[in-house]
Specification:
Length: 381
């Protein structure tokens, strides 16, 4: 079954298929007013969000806290250590790479970015990353400033909006880059993945040229695509999902003062985050979403270190056993997520190497069969 590799970086007017053929691709013309304006809007949205957001993260002279009063009045079992907020520096650095991709010839035609879809048609129905990104910036600012002003319901709505845009972007990228073939057998998926990183090449069986199955340039390009176009949204999606749950716990904690109920809610929230993280990090159908598990694990580690020395409201509200339960659940689940991501990465590396050897052997067998057929024809002559 042929699958089109839509995500291959293009510097010309063609895009490669998994079988080695090529199809014409619409070139991105940045003189087009729509595309030119959108690229400028994305860059300005990013710059404004970075300046405003980072300016609000660490503006207090009270130790590590941005606003101690807001922080202490919204304590739950899922509150994180203050340093956890510094992941925003990493998130905005990665989003800077996403913005830079629209200025790099090797990336600006990638369908993971979306400009080529705009160039190909006047109307579009896809949640293109470059179209959704300004809205993502707006929802991020809404969430951060609402939290700073102690408007937790508004912060929750902002984080939910961010989740919507992030999920839309990631789903679009998965559909255009990492959707495996309909035959979902293990062998088909591993062969599909190998085709995505290794273009079809002609195996030459002579003394001069050895078989070259791995195209290092293509692999390098795919790694570049992941860090520039996918990881910025995956890592943010994982951390933002944890913020969703955290804001929800704060709102419910203020409505229902029962310590037992809030302990159950915190435990259920941690189990939910673990389930989501393991699913997106491991499932064969949804590609390689390593960043989501990493963002969730970072948040859970923040919960663990906060509960090592819990704040006064937590100590007065919950028993030592309840605090220990939430503390150890968070650190165990964080390690499970990181282990899942690591095992998945090793598993994929092994699968790629196995498929590479199998394809090399298949190529050698095909060449030998062709040589035998040619020899038989000469014998008959």
């Amino acid at each position: 079954m042929e699958m089109e590799s839509k995500s291959t970086p293009v510097t010309g007017d063609y895009i490669a298929h998994t079988d080695g053929s090529a199809a014409e691709q619409t070139a991105v013309n940045f003189e087009d007013p729509r595309i030119k304006s959108l690229r400028l809007i994305n860059a300005l949205s990013y710059a404004l969000t970075v300046m405003v957001s980072l300016g609000s993260i660490h503006t207090s002279v009270n130790d590590e806290y941005d606003d101690y009063e807001v922080w202490i009045t919204n304590q739950t079992l899922l509150s994180v250590a203050p340093y956890t907020q510094y992941i925003w520096y990493i998130l905005f650095l990665l989003q800077g790479l996403f913005i830079a991709a629209s200025f790099l010839p090797s990336l600006w035609s990638s369908e993971l970015l979306g400009y080529n879809v705009l160039a190909a048609q006047t109307g579009y129905k896809h949640p293109l990353p470059v179209v959704h990104y300004p809205a993502l910036c707006a929802s991020t600012l809404m969430m951060m400033y609402s939290a700073k002003l102690n408007l937790m319901s508004m912060a929750f709505l902002g984080s939910c909006a961010s989740t919507y845009f992030l999920v839309s972007i990631i789903k679009y990228q998965l559909d255009n880059d990492t959707t495996p073939p309909e035959e979902e057998t293990f062998g088909e998926i591993t062969k599909w993945f190998q085709r995505r990183i290794t273009p079809a090449s002609t195996l030459q069986l002579d003394d001069v040229t050895s078989p070259d199955v791995t195209d290092e340039k293509t692999l390098k390009d795919r790694i570049q695509q992941y860090f520039f176009l996918k990881l910025p949204f995956e890592l943010y999606a994982g951390f933002n999902l944890a913020l969703n749950v955290s804001f929800l716990n704060i709102i419910i904690h203020k409505l229902i003062a029962s310590a037992v109920f809030n302990l159950v809610l915190a435990s259920a929230s941690l189990l939910f985050l673990l389930g989501v993280g393991c699913y997106v990090s491991w499932t064969e159908k949804k590609g390689l979403s390593y960043g989501i598990g990493g963002g969730l694990a970072w948040y859970m580690f923040g919960v663990f270190f906060q509960l090592i020395n819990p704040s006064a409201p937590i100590m007065m509200t919950y028993s030592e056993e309840a605090i220990d339960a939430a503390k150890y659940m968070s650190v165990i689940f964080a390690n499970v997520l990181l282990s899942t991501v690591a095992i998945r990465a090793v598993k994929n590396a092994i699968n790629v190497n196995v498929v590479r050897v199998d394809e090399m052997e298949d190529g050698l067998e095909d060449e030998e069969e062709e040589e035998d057929d040619v020899g038989a024809e000469y014998t008959q002559v």
